[in-house]
Amino acid sequence: MNYEEIIDMDKQYVMTTYARQPVVFVRGRGARVWDANGKEYLDFLAGIAVNGLGHCHPRVVEAIREQAGVLMHTSNLYYTELQPRLARMLVDWSDFNRVFFCNSGAEANEAAIKLARKWGKRTSPDKFEVATALGSFHGRTMGAITATGQPKYQEAFKPLVPGFKHVPYNSIGALEEAVSDATCAVILEPVQGESGVHPASREYLEAARELCDRVGALLIFDEVQTGLGRTGKLFAYEHFGVVPDVMTLAKTLAGGFPMGACLARGEAANVLQPGDHAATFGGNPLASAAAIASLSAIHEEGLVENARDVGQYFLSKLRELRIAEVRGLGLMVAVELEDPVGKAAAAACMDGGLIVNAIGENILRFLPPLIITRDDVDRAIGILEGAISAVGPVAGARAARVTSSEL
Length: 407
Ligand SMILES: Cc1ncc(COP(=O)(O)O)c(C=O)c1O
Fold this sequence. Notes:
CATH class of the largest domain: Alpha Beta
Oligomer: single chain
CATH architecture of the largest domain: 3-Layer(aba) Sandwich
Number of strands: 18
Strand content: 15-25%
Shape: globular
CATH superfamily of the largest domain: Type I PLP-dependent aspartate aminotransferase-like (Major domain)
Helix content: 25-40%
CATH topology of the largest domain: Aspartate Aminotransferase, domain 2
Bound molecules: pyridoxal-5'-phosphate
C-alpha cells in the first residue's frame, strides 16, 4: 500500500478522534524513525514520552519476544510471577509500598481517584472532594477529564463527575481556599506537560503536602509524563523533596508497550480491597516483562543521568538561539515563540526531519527519548533554527529565559 492509500483507509475506517499529521511511519530504531517513503526523522517527541528508551530497545524487544512464547495473559484471578516482580522493583526504587497495574495513564488516574474517594469515605460520607489544577492534563476517561483543568476537553461531555474543584496552578492561596475537611485528595502534575511544560514551584508542592496532612487528604502526583527519568530524576517528586501518598505512572513504563500503574504508600496502600477495582489486562505477564526490561535498561544504562546531562545541554543550546522563552526539566522541554507560528514551525521541523509537538499557537514541546546524545541535540537545534527562520523572523525577539531547569 502506498502513502495515500494508507491515509485514505485510516480516514474511512478509523474514528477521527485525532488530527493526524500527513505522515505514515513504518519503522523505528533508537531516536530515529522512518516513514513509508524511507525518509528519516530524529524523534524529539518519542510517541509523547512513551518511547523513553527510544524505538525498539533491544532489551524490551527481546523480553516481549520471549514472554510472548511463554505466557501472555491469565487474568488477575490468578497469581503470576512477573507482576509482583515488577511491583517490587517499583517499590524498591521509590517511596511507595504497593502497586496497582492497568493499561494507560487515564486508567492509572482513575485508580488513584477511586482510591482517594474510598479513603475519604472511611472518615466521612462528605469527604469526597478532589482539588486539581487549571491547565492540568490527566487523561480522557470521565474521571480523568473531570480532573483535567481544561474546559476544552470537558464541554462536550458534561455533566462531569461531581466533587472536583479546579484551582490556578502554583497558587498556594487558591489551593488553601479550595482544600477543606471535605477534600479527599489533591491531584497535581509536578511539571504540567500537555499544556506546555510548566514546572511547579517547590513551595507550592510543599504547601500542597502540608494542606493534605492538615485535612487528612491524599496528595496524588500524576507522574504519567514526568516519571521514569524524563525530568532527570527517576521520579519528578525527588526534585522537590515532597513525597506524595499516591503516584501514577504510564508512558515510558513498559518501553512502548501499553501499561499504567498507581502506586501508594502507608495506609493509602491498603485502601483498595478485593472487588473495589480491577483491570482485566492490568499487569499481565507480557506487559510486566516489557516493563521489567524497560526499568532495568533505564537503571543499568544510566538513562536518568543522561536525561539530566543532555537535558541541560539541550536547554543551553535552546537559550543560545535567543529567540524564545525556554522552560524545562531534564528532557521535558518547551519553547514559547513570540509569534503564533508554532504549528508552522513544527511542520517545518517535520520537513527538515525532526519530530516535535506544537501546543496552542506558539509553544513547541520536546520529549526526546532518554537515550539521546549531544550530537542528536546539535542536529535538532540546527533543524529547529532553520524551521523557525523559515516560518518568518520572529518579531520582537527577546533574550531567552530559562525557568526552573534547576530546582
Ligand atoms: C500527565 C498525564 N496524565 C495522564 C495522561 C493520560 O495518559 P493516557 O493517554 O495513557 O491515558 C497523560 C497523557 O498525555 C499525561 O500527560
